[in-house]
């Protein structure tokens, strides 16, 4: 297998912030970049050589992108299999189609994890309203119902049994089934979480594999609010999380990046939550914390270059900046940047909307706690 060297062209399916930051790292390494995105003014637009307009199921646009590329990668898992196959006629697609097919469907993904002996929380496959009603009872009343396809940042999900007004399982199932548009889903028992962590793994076509120290992730309303590297979990847990993430990458024959989101319960159990075959929000701090950022790493991995060192240089944290921060006034970036160790990352999105990730702040610190404190202090000043 021969490496794809700087000067070659990388194509990215998706031009959101993950594609944009990947493109910026690729440019630093001397690659040319093209992206495909439904939005011609997507965040990556400003840092790439060409932007092809096309929806995720536009196989022709995917082929147009791939024709001029030496390798294709992606920043979102919802790219249609037909688009991936169309691109694969012209350039290797990394991660590959088989892995993407499993991951982009929560039902297939969860069942794959079970079949390969990975620990997951209790769940049920849902194909009908009746399935959901049975599942709500079987899972003890409190659960998360997640569409099999298309969700992110807590979208296409319904939380059941969390409000005080007691309704029957029948009513709850009926309402949730309607909210999710009568589409296949999984229902997961709501777990009592101690902590959420993730482990990013990189693997290249030649089989080299590296996994980053785990990140600790704090969610608010099912959206990542802040994240820190390292996670500071006990060493035995870290080893377990690393072993799980690395084995998934090998058994899926990963080429590229895979983020493994995990739940640590108050009973001390470690479960896999979900897989993301691309750069991940919880590793944005790798740009500050690690010798090699996740964005440089995906470039190295898909180009079959030697993977970069993943050791920690200094603890670092990030805090997401959601659209609501823009409502009412222009955020005071001048004040936030006065906090020591803080940097600002904006994605050049034009329309701030509630829940939309517009950018993030990052901070380094002498300890993970100090990095978190600084980044949250800076965010308060906005
Ligand atoms: P998304 O694709 O939106 O990231 P996730 O399945 O990761 O979907 O859910 C988003 C967040 O919602 C999780 O990070 C966690 O905070 C919360 N959550 C999801 N499922 C469960 C569960 N079964 N028990 C407790 N919390 C959950
Ligand atoms: Mg998630």
From TrEMBL:
EC main group: ligase
InterPro entries the UniProt entry points to: ATP-grasp, ATP-grasp_carboxylate-amine, ATP_grasp_subdomain_1, PreATP-grasp_dom_sf, PurK, PurK_C, PurT/PurK_preATP-grasp, Rudment_hybrid_motif
Catalytic activity entry: 5-amino-1-(5-phospho-beta-D-ribosyl)imidazole + hydrogencarbonate + ATP = 5-carboxyamino-1-(5-phospho-D-ribosyl)imidazole + ADP + phosphate + 2 H(+)
Superkingdom, taxonomy of origin: Bacteria
Limits of the ATP-grasp domain: 110-303
Pfam families found in the cross-reference section: ATP-grasp (PF02222), PurK_C (PF17769), RS_preATP-grasp-like (PF22660)
GO molecular function, one term: ATP binding
GO annotation, cellular component aspect: cytosol
UniProt-annotated binding residues for ATP: 106, 146, 188-191, 196, 219, 273-274
Assigned keywords, A-Z: ATP-binding, Ligase, Lyase, Nucleotide-binding, Purine biosynthesis
Coiled coil: none
Subunit and interaction comment: Homodimer.
PANTHER family on file: PHOSPHORIBOSYLAMINOIMIDAZOLE CARBOXYLASE, PURINE BIOSYNTHESIS PROTEIN 6/7, PUR6/7
Entry's family note: Belongs to the PurK/PurT family.
Role noted for this protein: Catalyzes the ATP-dependent conversion of 5-aminoimidazole ribonucleotide (AIR) and HCO(3)- to N5-carboxyaminoimidazole ribonucleotide (N5-CAIR). Catalyzes the ATP-dependent conversion of 5-aminoimidazole ribonucleotide (AIR) and HCO(3)(-) to N5-carboxyaminoimidazole ribonucleotide (N5-CAIR).
Protein name in the entry: N5-carboxyaminoimidazole ribonucleotide synthase
């Amino acid at each position: 297998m021969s490496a794809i060297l700087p000067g070659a062209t990388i194509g990215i399916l998706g031009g959101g912030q993950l594609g944009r930051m990947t493109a910026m790292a690729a440019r630093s390494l001397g690659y040319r970049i093209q992206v495909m995105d439904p939005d011609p003014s997507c965040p990556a637009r400003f840092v790439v050589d060409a932007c092809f307009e096309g929806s995720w199921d536009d196989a022709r646009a995917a082929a147009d992108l791939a024709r001029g590329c030496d390798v294709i990668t992606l920043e979102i898992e919802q790219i249609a299999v037909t688009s991936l196959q169309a691109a694969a006629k012209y350039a290797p697609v990394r991660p590959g189609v088989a892995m993407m097919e499993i991951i982009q469907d929560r039902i297939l993904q969860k069942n794959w994890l079970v079949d390969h002996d990975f620990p997951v929380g209790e769940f049920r496959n849902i194909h009908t309203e009746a399935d959901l009603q049975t599942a709500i009872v079987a899972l003890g009343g409190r659960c998360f119902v997640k569409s099999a396809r298309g969700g992110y940042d807590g979208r296409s999900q319904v939380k059941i049994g969390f409000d005080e007004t007691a309704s029957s399982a029948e009513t709850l199932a009926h309402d949730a089934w309607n909210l999710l548009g009568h589409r296949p889903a999984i229902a997961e028992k709501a777990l009592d979480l101690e902590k959420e962590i993730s482990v990013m793994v990189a693997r290249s076509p030649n089989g080299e594999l590296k996994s980053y120290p785990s990140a600790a992730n704090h969610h608010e309303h099912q959206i990542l609010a802040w994240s820190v590297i390292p996670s500071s979990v006990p060493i035995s847990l870290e080893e377990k999380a690393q072993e799980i993430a690395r084995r998934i990458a090998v058994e899926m024959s990963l080429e590229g990046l895979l983020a493994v989101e995990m739940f640590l319960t108050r009973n001390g159990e470690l479960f896999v939550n979900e897989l993301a075959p691309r750069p991940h929000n919880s590793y944005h701090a790798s740009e500050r914390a690690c010798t090699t950022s996740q964005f440089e790493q995906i470039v190295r991995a898909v180009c079959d270059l030697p993977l970069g060192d993943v050791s920690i240089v200094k603890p670092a944290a990030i805090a997401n900046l959601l659209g609501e921060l823009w409502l009412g006034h222009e955020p005071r970036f001048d004040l936030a940047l006065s906090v020591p160790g803080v940097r600002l990352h904006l994605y050049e999105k034009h329309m701030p909307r509630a829940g939309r990730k517009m950018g993030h702040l990052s901070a380094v610190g002498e300890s993970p706690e100090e990095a978190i404190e600084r980044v949250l202090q800076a965010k308060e000043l906005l």
